[in-house]
Amino acid sequence: MTSRIAGTDRTTAPLTVGFDLDMTLIDSRPGIHACYQELSARTGTYIDADLTITRLGPPLEEELKHWFPADRVAAMATLYREMYPTYAITATPALPGAREAVDAVHAAGGRALVVTAKFEPNAKLHLKHLAIDVDAVIGDLWAERKAEALTEHGASVYVGDHTGDVRGARTAGALSVAVATGPCDAAELRAAGADVVLDDLTGFPAWLAAYRADGSVADLA
């Protein structure tokens, strides 16, 4: 499907692109799996780490509610976040095309942001470890609340892997570019209202070049 965004000169308009982090720029599954295993060992509470990494995206507390009583969730979230740098950072690789996608924004004279539900200090550790150079990192925002940061920073495009990311983009009035690298497949992302669906970020630089050149929006997945 190809459409055109009318009324804006994409070759001269300021460009700010937001990116989600988990399963958009990074494959956080190995590190999160290891962190949940350690949390289980420390607390003596069964956690199915294999299951947890199939539903990444929502805030940590939402996952912890499946394994701990409500009155322990806040404490477990604090413990998890304290352990996270030790168990998750070095275990987590960049997804294919992640650096190139951010570099493409910069090459176009734009700014690249990360807007994520992840605890902001840990998000910054991932980006530093993987040498993914972005202009700002805003954490602790999920779904529609991501629009707060996207609007504040003037993002016209938001790239994510989850239907919650699509909702965040649409709430902010930004173009929703979805990548089918996370828990939501291409059909789910389209049904949620994504303007563009890519198989992964390797296709993003070419898509961005076309979008900047003539405003065309192609669904490539």
Structure description:
Helices cover 44% and strands 14% of the residues. The strands form 2 sheets. A 6-stranded parallel sheet has the order 4-3-2-5-6-7, with helices on both faces. The protein has a two-stranded antiparallel sheet with strand order 1-8. The model is unreliable at 1-11 (pLDDT under 50). The protein is α/β, with parallel strands linked by helices. It contains 10 helices and 8 strands. This is Haloacid dehalogenase-like hydrolase. It comes from Streptomyces flavofungini. InterPro entries: HAD-like_hydrolase_sf, HAD-like_sf, HAD_sf, PGP-like_dom2.
Number of helices: 10
Please provide the count of β strands: 8
Query: How would you describe the shape?
Result: elongated
Largest sheet: 6 strands, parallel
Give the averaged pLDDT, no decimals. 93
Detail the poorly predicted runs: 1-11
What's the alpha carbon Rg, rounded to whole Å?
17 Å
What is the chain-wise order of helices and strands?
EEHHHHHEHEHEHEHEHE
Pfam family, one: HAD
Protein name: Haloacid dehalogenase-like hydrolase
Organism: Streptomyces flavofungini
Can you give keywords for this protein?
221 residues; alpha/beta; six-stranded parallel sheet; two-stranded antiparallel sheet; 10 helices; disordered N terminus
